[in-house]
Amino acid sequence: MIAETIERGYALSPQDAVKKLKDTPPLIKELSVAWTVYDSLQAMGFDMIEDETGISRLTYHFSREYDLMAKDAAIVAYAHKNKITDIITNDRDFQRVPWLTCWNP
């Protein structure tokens, strides 16, 4: 996501790209490389080695659904899989997940 954000001219550095994506979450839906790579690997028959089955699919789903960067989407995927509905965080991005209650320390 970060490389594609730079390649498309939205940012000049990885730090700028992260800031741009966090400041403009709908931009995540416009990106395509991560989704294409993920879909292509499965189409070619590659198996995803996961510590929990289905986490990578959920991660990509939540990234697209709620305009989350991959790391945040992975946290949401694990929360969903483990029926966690409350988290403690200062990251406002999680507030876009309607079933997740965010507590600010």
Automatic annotation (TrEMBL):
UniProt xrefs under SUPFAM superfamilies: PIN domain-like
InterPro entries hit by this protein: PIN-like_dom_sf, PIN_dom
Short name of any one Pfam family annotated for the protein: PIN
Residue ranges annotated for the PIN domain, each copy included: 40-99
Coiled-coil ranges per UniProt: none
Name listed for the protein in its UniProt record: PIN domain-containing protein
Organism: hydrocarbon metagenome
